[in-house]
Amino acid sequence: VLKPLGEDDLLKLLHRALHEDVELKQRVFDVQQTEALFRFSGGDARKLLNILDLLVNAEDGETIVINNRTVTDRLQENPAAYDKGGEMHYDIISAFIKSIRGSDPDAALYWLARMVEAGEDPAFIARRLVISAAEDIGLANPNALLMANACFDALQNIGWPEGRIVLAEATVYLASSPKSNSAYLAIDRALDVVRRTGNLPVPLHLRNASTSLMKELDYGKEYKYAHDYPGHFVRQEYMPENLKERSFWQPQTMPAEQKLKEYISRLWPERY
Predict the structure, then answer these.
(1) In the chain, which segments carry CATH 1.10.3710?
(2) Following CA atoms 148, 149, 152, 153 in sequence, which dihedral angle do they give, to the nearest 10 degrees?
(3) 173 Cβ partners below 8 Å, 6+ apart?
């Protein structure tokens, strides 16, 4: 793993590029500030040279001014300058999601700001928030998924730069919510069983009797319609024969999920 270059090394690289590069030395540069240039480069020599190239191509005047404002403006106008396919792109989104999962809203906001400042696609961030809401918050706070979806929709409606506020609101809400990954674990358990057991037959009473022949074969026969019974519940078997009493969802300890467990355990006490 290559270590990022320090400020002194970046400054040397900058001076060398401006005075020795075949194309750059033909232009006139006014280097006023380097903080933004070095910050956006992330200690990556290749990225610093890419940013210089971007500044050159964007400026028709005789003198190319390098300061914090010009660098920031050019990168925001050209999001492709952010290394979306590079290692840092994935490192930052990973840090963002892990900060939400770790219930640290301040850290999550910092990594969000890093992505916003670098020109990351807001829709990409919003999609990751939706995934996090389902995977990491889940049934501990089902409203988190509604919030994340609302964030995604709002971005489409209001655009940028106001969209950054919507992303920040959803980020803080998710990071500050109680966490549960029980739904994530449950579907993976179910998928594992399906892959090991194959296409087990659907019980006859659960099948769709859409033709007279199917009715003659007892499709749907003896099915009990839950709404016809007290409390809108009646015990009957919904699993394939080989999976009776199999349990995939294992409720976790957060209050909202425990309320679901309390209800469902009264219906299926042998499972929950």
Answers:
(1) 193-267
(2) -140
(3) 144, 147
State the sign of the Cα–Cα–Cα–Cα dihedral 254, 256, 262, 264: negative
Residue 159 token pair: 């655009």
Q: What is the pLDDT of residues 56-103, one digit of tens each?
A: 887 777 889 999 888 888 876 655 455 555 556 778 899 999 999 999
151-186 pLDDT tens trace: 999 998 988 889 999 999 999 999 999 999 999 999
3-state secondary structure of 161: coil
> Residue 84 corresponds to which tokens in the numbers above?
């979306």
Which helix (H) or strand (E) element contains residue 38? Answer: helix 35-41
What pTM, to 2 d.p., does this model score?
0.67
Q: Which CATH class is domain 7-81?
A: mainly alpha
Relative to beta strand 63-66, strand 28-31 is parallel
Nearest to 151 by CA among 134, 121, 132, 171: 171
Taking only the tens place, the pLDDT of each residue in 130-145 is: 999 999 999 999 999 9
Every domain of the chain with CATH number 1.20.272.10 lies at 87-175
DSSP 79-110: GGGS-TTSHHHHHHHHHHHHHHHTT-HHHHHH
Residues 87-175, CATH architecture: Up-down Bundle (1.20)
CATH 1.10.3710 fits 193-267, yes or no: yes
More confident position, 47 or 240: 240
Helix or strand or coil: residue 63? strand
